[in-house]
Amino acid sequence: MATPDFIRDIRADIGHQLLWLPGVSAVVFDDRGRVLLGRRADSGMWSIIGGIPEPGEQPAETAVREVFEETAVHVVPERVILVEALQRVRYPNGDECQFMDISLRCRAVGGTAVVNDDESLEVGWFALDALPEMEEFAVARIKMALDDGPAWFAGIERA
Questions:
Q1: 3-class secondary-structure state, position 106
Q2: Among candidates 100, 128, 21, 24, which has minimal Cα distance to 67?
Protein backbone atom coordinates (compact mmCIF):
# COMPACT_ATOMS: atom_id res chain seq x y z
CA MET A 1 0.00 0.00 0.00
CA ALA A 2 1.45 3.33 -0.98
CA THR A 3 1.97 5.70 1.93
CA PRO A 4 0.09 9.00 1.49
CA ASP A 5 2.18 12.18 1.61
CA PHE A 6 0.41 13.46 4.74
CA ILE A 7 1.51 10.34 6.65
CA ARG A 8 5.10 10.75 5.45
CA ASP A 9 4.97 14.32 6.81
CA ILE A 10 3.69 13.10 10.20
CA ARG A 11 6.32 10.34 10.32
CA ALA A 12 9.03 12.98 9.82
CA ASP A 13 7.98 14.41 13.20
CA ILE A 14 6.98 11.31 15.21
CA GLY A 15 9.31 8.65 13.81
CA HIS A 16 8.05 5.08 14.25
CA GLN A 17 5.57 5.85 17.07
CA LEU A 18 2.08 4.36 16.96
CA LEU A 19 -0.13 6.24 14.50
CA TRP A 20 -3.93 5.83 14.81
CA LEU A 21 -5.52 6.06 11.35
CA PRO A 22 -8.85 5.58 9.63
CA GLY A 23 -9.01 2.92 6.94
CA VAL A 24 -11.73 2.09 4.44
CA SER A 25 -12.37 -1.34 2.92
CA ALA A 26 -14.65 -1.89 -0.06
CA VAL A 27 -16.45 -5.15 -0.80
CA VAL A 28 -17.47 -4.66 -4.43
CA PHE A 29 -20.05 -6.81 -6.21
CA ASP A 30 -20.96 -6.76 -9.89
CA ASP A 31 -24.38 -7.44 -11.41
CA ARG A 32 -23.52 -11.17 -11.61
CA GLY A 33 -22.86 -11.39 -7.86
CA ARG A 34 -19.10 -11.71 -8.24
CA VAL A 35 -16.72 -9.95 -5.86
CA LEU A 36 -13.81 -7.74 -6.97
CA LEU A 37 -10.44 -8.69 -5.50
CA GLY A 38 -6.87 -7.53 -5.88
CA ARG A 39 -3.70 -9.53 -5.27
CA ARG A 40 -1.66 -7.19 -3.10
CA ALA A 41 1.86 -6.24 -4.19
CA ASP A 42 3.07 -6.09 -0.55
CA SER A 43 1.94 -9.57 0.57
CA GLY A 44 1.02 -11.42 -2.63
CA MET A 45 -2.35 -12.29 -1.06
CA TRP A 46 -5.76 -11.72 -2.64
CA SER A 47 -7.96 -9.28 -0.74
CA ILE A 48 -10.75 -6.78 -0.97
CA ILE A 49 -9.82 -3.23 -1.97
CA GLY A 50 -9.02 -0.60 0.63
CA GLY A 51 -6.99 2.39 1.64
CA ILE A 52 -6.53 5.43 3.83
CA PRO A 53 -8.74 8.52 3.51
CA GLU A 54 -7.06 11.77 2.63
CA PRO A 55 -7.56 14.46 5.32
CA GLY A 56 -11.21 15.60 5.21
CA GLU A 57 -12.27 12.86 2.78
CA GLN A 58 -15.48 11.00 3.62
CA PRO A 59 -15.29 7.16 3.89
CA ALA A 60 -17.60 6.62 0.89
CA GLU A 61 -15.45 8.98 -1.20
CA THR A 62 -12.38 7.00 -0.13
CA ALA A 63 -13.97 3.73 -1.25
CA VAL A 64 -14.87 5.17 -4.66
CA ARG A 65 -11.38 6.67 -5.12
CA GLU A 66 -9.42 3.64 -3.90
CA VAL A 67 -11.38 1.12 -5.98
CA PHE A 68 -10.90 3.21 -9.11
CA GLU A 69 -7.22 3.94 -8.41
CA GLU A 70 -6.44 0.26 -7.86
CA THR A 71 -8.77 -1.45 -10.37
CA ALA A 72 -10.24 1.13 -12.82
CA VAL A 73 -13.73 0.03 -11.70
CA HIS A 74 -16.34 2.70 -10.88
CA VAL A 75 -18.46 1.94 -7.82
CA VAL A 76 -21.37 3.27 -5.80
CA PRO A 77 -21.20 2.66 -2.03
CA GLU A 78 -24.43 1.04 -0.79
CA ARG A 79 -24.02 0.65 2.94
CA VAL A 80 -21.68 0.32 5.91
CA ILE A 81 -21.13 -3.33 6.74
CA LEU A 82 -18.63 -3.15 9.61
CA VAL A 83 -16.76 -0.72 11.85
CA GLU A 84 -13.80 -2.28 13.67
CA ALA A 85 -10.58 -1.24 15.40
CA LEU A 86 -7.88 -3.53 14.02
CA GLN A 87 -4.82 -4.88 15.80
CA ARG A 88 -1.60 -2.87 15.78
CA VAL A 89 0.65 -3.42 12.78
CA ARG A 90 4.42 -3.05 12.76
CA TYR A 91 5.81 -2.61 9.26
CA PRO A 92 9.27 -3.87 8.21
CA ASN A 93 10.65 -0.30 8.48
CA GLY A 94 9.57 -0.13 12.16
CA ASP A 95 6.53 2.12 11.71
CA GLU A 96 3.57 1.22 13.93
CA CYS A 97 -0.05 1.85 12.92
CA GLN A 98 -3.47 0.90 14.15
CA PHE A 99 -6.50 1.34 11.91
CA MET A 100 -10.18 1.97 12.53
CA ASP A 101 -11.59 0.09 9.55
CA ILE A 102 -14.87 1.19 8.00
CA SER A 103 -15.99 -1.51 5.57
CA LEU A 104 -18.52 -0.64 2.87
CA ARG A 105 -20.55 -2.77 0.48
CA CYS A 106 -20.26 -1.29 -3.01
CA ARG A 107 -21.86 -1.95 -6.38
CA ALA A 108 -19.84 -1.77 -9.60
CA VAL A 109 -21.35 0.62 -12.13
CA GLY A 110 -18.66 0.82 -14.82
CA GLY A 111 -15.09 0.32 -15.88
CA THR A 112 -13.11 -2.82 -16.57
CA ALA A 113 -11.10 -4.52 -13.83
CA VAL A 114 -7.39 -4.03 -14.57
CA VAL A 115 -4.31 -3.37 -12.48
CA ASN A 116 -4.42 0.42 -12.33
CA ASP A 117 -1.53 1.22 -9.96
CA ASP A 118 1.47 -0.39 -8.26
CA GLU A 119 -0.45 -1.65 -5.20
CA SER A 120 -1.81 -4.77 -6.95
CA LEU A 121 -0.20 -7.59 -8.91
CA GLU A 122 -3.53 -8.76 -10.34
CA VAL A 123 -7.21 -7.80 -10.04
CA GLY A 124 -10.30 -9.73 -11.01
CA TRP A 125 -13.89 -10.75 -10.42
CA PHE A 126 -14.52 -13.97 -8.49
CA ALA A 127 -17.63 -16.07 -8.05
CA LEU A 128 -18.41 -16.57 -4.37
CA ASP A 129 -17.96 -20.33 -4.72
CA ALA A 130 -14.52 -19.90 -6.34
CA LEU A 131 -12.69 -17.42 -4.09
CA PRO A 132 -8.89 -17.61 -3.92
CA GLU A 133 -7.07 -18.11 -0.62
CA MET A 134 -7.42 -14.95 1.47
CA GLU A 135 -6.83 -13.77 5.01
CA GLU A 136 -9.77 -13.91 7.42
CA PHE A 137 -10.01 -10.10 7.27
CA ALA A 138 -11.29 -10.25 3.68
CA VAL A 139 -13.33 -13.45 4.02
CA ALA A 140 -15.25 -12.09 7.01
CA ARG A 141 -16.06 -8.81 5.27
CA ILE A 142 -17.31 -10.57 2.15
CA LYS A 143 -19.63 -12.71 4.30
CA MET A 144 -20.89 -9.64 6.17
CA ALA A 145 -21.50 -7.79 2.90
CA LEU A 146 -23.79 -10.62 1.78
CA ASP A 147 -25.94 -10.20 4.91
CA ASP A 148 -28.70 -7.65 4.41
CA GLY A 149 -28.90 -6.94 8.13
CA PRO A 150 -27.69 -3.78 9.88
CA ALA A 151 -24.03 -2.84 10.11
CA TRP A 152 -21.77 -4.94 12.33
CA PHE A 153 -19.92 -3.17 15.14
CA ALA A 154 -17.00 -5.18 16.54
CA GLY A 155 -17.32 -5.92 20.24
CA ILE A 156 -21.13 -5.61 20.26
CA GLU A 157 -23.44 -8.61 19.99
CA ARG A 158 -26.01 -8.37 17.22
CA ALA A 159 -29.57 -8.69 18.44
A1: strand
A2: 24
